[in-house]
Amino acid sequence: GAAPAARTVHPLEMANGTRLWLVTGYGPVRQALSDPRFAKDSWEIMRILRDRRIQAHQEIFSQALSHHMLNTDPPEHHRLRHMVNKGFTLRRVQRLRPRIEQITDQLLDAVQGQDSVDLIEALAFPLPITVICELLGVPEEDRRTFRSWTNAFVLAVEPEVFRDASVAMNAYIRELVAAKRAAPGDDMISALATEDSESALDDEEIAAMAVLLLAAGHETTVNLIGNGALALVTHPGQFAALRADRSLLPGAIEEFLRFESPVNQATMRFTKEPVEIGGVLIPEDEFVMVNVDSANHDPERFPQPGRLDLKRDARGHVSFGHGIHFCLGAPLARLEAEVVFTKLLDCFETIELATPVAQLEWRSSTLMRGLESLPLRM
Ligand code: HEM
Fold first, then answer.
1. Is 2 a domain residue?
2. How far apart, in whole angstroms, are the C-alpha atoms of residue 207 and residue 193?
3. Domain range for residue 201?
4. What pLDDT does residue 57 have?
């Protein structure tokens, strides 16, 4: 007879007593990401945590800074996203191409002639952070300072470390918003601070928006560049094929995203009401962990999912999410990757790892999949 279908929804009991439901597989993951009964509102999450007497994550969700568009539901979500949507359309983002190319050239020039280069430190980290800071109007000299804060938001850190980072970041952003309001520039924070329509954001909302964009704008793209470069150097035949035929590049970037997604393990939801998914009934007010990687590696959707194949049609991966929270920055992330990989392919005939694969260190995070460093010989 037919083999029994694999289970796709699994109840989990965490060491601290938190109960979670893990959702895996392409169909259930897409459902959980787009079905409005799986909600995100951070004030509601706080209520559930308090009801269940779970202390561990209260620090995170009690902060107004965490109440940004990714942690809100409609209609609030729509209002917040609408305020910045036009800044991130494909057309608007394409205008940034010359500047992104210029920054990439400068960063590559700086490491010219070096024997071995850490691609993360030299390019994958500084490029996206420079771009998002310029868009938002964050002064260059402050970028290194808040790297440690946004790190605390995405890495596995103690709640106190998260709280300290939030306090510091909040104070910094509040001051920046006040300065922009007094002397607006040609940037997104100034635009938000001087907006006077009915849907204008208050200071707390602008600060939360800025923090989300700053964190999401670089903590993820660094991993697309790093993981994509690692995929290329460990598959020299496909590197050569891509070098010979650049029309493969947009598809290759989708395959990098599918193969080793920057946000790979889980994105969180909670149930607003009982929901049946994957043949399992999840009760109301339960936390749900949606596993992105399992959807991207579901063999029924992507045959031989563990094989990197730059020629496959990887569209439909869920590395940018799905539904109303679909990544706002996807066009920007794709453009940055396209510029970087074009330059790497133009400038270097071969690229090799300067360290054995087994010795590469991955960042410790339950959210992100990315390398600490990627030493390359180019
Ligand atoms: C949302 C991934 C780059 C801004 C998301 C989500 C994912 C994601 C998976 C949805 C999370 C969920 O539904 O729970 C990525 C990846 C990136 C990337 C893999 C790079 C390769 C960027 C960039 C920006 C950005 C460059 C900034 C400009 C956002 C925002 C949201 C979001 C604002 C929330 C959208 C909403 O709630 O409506 N991203 N992202 N992301 N991303 Fe990205």
1. no
2. 10
3. 9-377
4. 66
